[in-house]
Every structure is written in C-alpha cells, then in structure tokens.
Amino acid sequence: MASQRIAVIGGGWAGMAAAVELASTTAHKVTVYEAASHWGGRARGMALQLPNGQQVSADNGQHILIGAYTACRALMERVGVNAEAAFAQMPLSMRYPDGSGIQFPDWPTPWDALWGIASARGWSLAERSQLLLRSARWRRQGFRCAPQTTVADLCHGLPQRLLAEFFDPLCISALNTPIEQASGQVFLRVLQDSLFAVAKGSQFWLPQIDLGSLFPGTAVEWLAARGHNSYSSRRVQQIAQTPQGWQVQGIPFDAVVLATPAWESARLVAAALPQAQEWAQCAQALQHTAIATVYAWQGPGCGPARLLPAPMLALHNSAEQPAQFVFDRGQLGGPAGLLAFVISTSVGSRAEIEQHVIAQAKAQLGLDLQALQTVVEKRATFACTPGLLRPELAIAPGLVACGDYIDGPYPATLEGAVRSGIAAAHALR
After folding, report:
1. Quick check: helix, strand or coil at residue 185?
2. How many other CB atoms are found less than 10 A from the CB of residue 46?
3. How do beta strands 399-401 and 255-258 pair?
4. pLDDT mean over 223-231
5. 374: Cβ–Cβ under 8 A, 6 or more apart, which residues?
6. Cα dist. 419→257, 339, 402, 413, 426 in Å?
7. Tell me: the pLDDT tens digits for 136-173?
8. What DSSP element (H or E) covers 47?
9. For residue 300, what pLDDT band results from cuts at 50, 70 and 90?
10. 250 pLDDT exceeds 90?
11. Of 70, 77, 101, 394, whose CB has the highest number of CB atoms within 10 Å?
C-alpha cells in the first residue's frame, strides 16, 4: 500500500477513531488538528471546583455507554484503555427514587429484558403484558417501521405510565429527542442492538474517569508513540483541493478527514468546493438540541452527604422539574456528595435550569443541594427526527467526513461517532 499523508481535522471521538484506524495501517502518516486546547470535542473533561477548594475532574456533560456499543470498547482497548476498569457496569435500570420502574437482572440476552419487564415495580400486570407484547411485535417485524414513523407512533395505544416512565426517558437518553418528534426507525435499531443482538447489550457503562482522558487523550499518546502528530489549539481556517491532493492551512496532504461538528465541516466544504454545495447545505440544515448538566453538591453545608440508592436514577420530569436523570459521582470514582443532573433538550437560562433542578432534588430526592456549575451544550446533538436526511461520508476524492451526524443507523452517540470515524478511515485505504 502506498504511503499517504492524511490530515484529520478535529480531535473528538470521531476524529480520534479515524486517526487510530488510519495509524493502524503503518503506511499512513497521520496529523490531527484540534481547534480547542483540550481533546474530546463535545465529550471532554473539565475541572470542577468543590466548595472546599478541591478540584476534581468531571465531564462537560454526563455521558453513558451501553453494552451494545462494541466499537467504542474495541477502540479504547486498542489504545490501551482497560474498559472493564474504566467503567462501572450495571444492568439497564430506569428506577426512580421511590423504587418504582424497571431494572434488568444480570442475565444473558434477551432473558434479562424479558424478566426486567415482567418484574417492573409499580406497573400493573396489564401494563407489563402490553410492553412484552409490543416488544414481541417489533421483533417479529424485524425492528423495522415506515421512515416517517415517530417513537410516539410506535407506542400508540400503550398505557401512559409506560410512556412516562420507560419510553420517554429511554428515548431521551438514546436519541436526545422527545418521543413525539423522534425517529421510530432509529429508536428500533437501538432497541434491537441493546436488547437482542449483542450479549449484555443493554447494560449501562458509566465512566469513572473523564471522557477526554478515557479515549481521546489516550489516543493522542498512542499516536505519538507511533510517530504521528496531534496538535491542539490549532483551528483550521481553510482547506483547498490541489492537483496533487489537498492542502490544510497551506500544508500538503494526500487526503483529509473532516471530523469537526456539522456546521464547521459545512463551512470548510462550502469555501473549498463549489461542486459540493449540496453536501454543505445538508450538513448546515441539521437542527440541533441542547443538553444541560447541573453539578450539585451535598457537602457539609447541606447536611451529611449520603449516597443515592444507585449510581444512576431516573427522575420524573416536567417543565418545572426538568432533569431526566441524576448520577451519583461518589459511586463513580468522584467525591461523595457530588451529583450530576442531566437535562436533555434543555431550554431556559443557566440560572433558571439550576433553580429548577435544585428544587427538583429537594422534591424527589429529599436533598438540600448547592449548585456548583451548570454546563449547557447548546448544539450537543442533532434532532433525530423521522426521515432525516443526513450528510454522506464521502464528499470528494480524498475528502471524507465523520461524526455522529453522518448518515448511519445510530443517533448522536459516542458509538455513532466512533463508527463513522472508522468508516471514514476505511474509505481512504
């Protein structure tokens, strides 16, 4: 294979997946450019200061993986991450603070899902039976539906409790889109892989170290050890096609991988390739939704810190109580008393979100908390709606794109990002 110089623009999970995959072919020389001073893109670490002045590492937003996300695990292990040690693994759980809801046992697939549904707390026999029957119907249909079907359409006729306590939080956590607007086909693909296709695919994998260190930072070291270059704080202003290949900031390369967010990739493509305006417009047209994470503290000033019943709990949410989940960082490698509340499709100012979440914690958890920091990623994910047109991987000869927004079967997840990065690397081999 002829040696190629390949630029990867973007040091998030997709870009690093592409870089590692390309570097696994020794003929290639890879250079990664990242605009920010940190690695990880929208799944990165940050410093969080506790009231006592102690600094701890947290994420810009609380993320989880599931057992079905096999590409993420394989890639982390390739660069030397011990995935078993880096994550707290637990069977799927949508348990609420009062103990109601669903929790799977640690059994083989699909018996874990069947027993979890059959033994759900607080659900009537009729409600559990209807969920089992509907799941069986989807399986018989090959987890396929019409392109314009929403998740709400899929769930039509099911009891309101199942919608409120299972499908709505599950859809929000997987697709970051409310069930009335979310793609039924993408949702069914996630269900298929997590509940039936992958052994223990439904398990939650909760990171115990920040995501920037977990993979992207480790990947930088892995690349450096093999003679490849990675530069942070290097925003690429332009790319240009030449008779010999491509230029990035005037530096020649044989090929380029765009691993930047959709809007940034659209800017670079629109300026460089008049013939690729349709691709740029498709990327630019994607609608995005916000995710907020409120880090709160139940330290000495808030009474004795106590652990939650589980590392992760579902919460009843509304406009006035917006968080869908709470994570106990004290059970995930962080200090006791640190909680992370997640609000998908968040609206309102940081101050409003904080105020609502602190009140929600008092009402549902019985805790008086102090807000430490609220992080709002305004364009955290794309809205995963039915029939959504997503940009293709290939743009022009020697130019490909990757990211969770690129056309594929998964929603805006780390697994979708990693799979697209690997696919981009394969397209250039």
Report:
1. helix
2. 17
3. parallel
4. 96
5. 292, 293, 294, 295, 350, 353, 354
6. 14, 31, 9, 10, 11
7. 999 999 999 999 999 999 999 999 999 999 999 999 98
8. strand 45-49
9. low
10. yes
11. 101
Q: What is the CA radius of gyration of the chain?
A: 22
Q: Which two tokens stand for residue 251?
A: 């530096």
Alpha-carbon distance of 16 to 421, in angstroms, equals 7
225 pLDDT above the threshold of 70: yes
Residue 2 has pLDDT above 80, yes or no: no
Q: Please state the rounded mean pLDDT for residues 80-102.
A: 92
d(CA 101, CA 123): 7
Q: Give the position of tokens 């026999």.
A: 125
Question: What is d(CA 408, CA 400) in angstroms, rounded to the nearest whole number?
Answer: 14
Antiparallel, parallel or unpaired: β 399-401 and 229-231: unpaired
Assign 343 to helix, strand or coil: strand
**How many angstroms from the chain centroid is the CA of residue 190?**
13
Q: Percent of the chain at pLDDT above 70?
A: 98
Residue 212: both structure tokens together: 């920037």
User: Within 10 Å of residue 238's Cβ, how many Cβ atoms?
Assistant: 12
> Do the Cβ atoms of 262 and 306 come closer than 8 Å?
no
Question: Is residue 190 a contact partner of residue 410, using CB atoms and an 8 Å limit?
Answer: yes
Residue 25 reports pLDDT greater than 80: no
Cβ distance 360 to 322 under 8 Å? yes
12 secondary structure, DSSP code: B
Residue for token digits 């119907």?
Answer: 137
At position 340, the amino acid (one-letter code) is A
Please give the Cα distance from 32 to 223 (Å, whole number): 10
Q: What is the mean pLDDT of residues 88-102?
A: 92
Peptide bond before residue 110 is cis, with ω within 30 degrees of 0: yes
List the structure tokens of 75.
């890639």
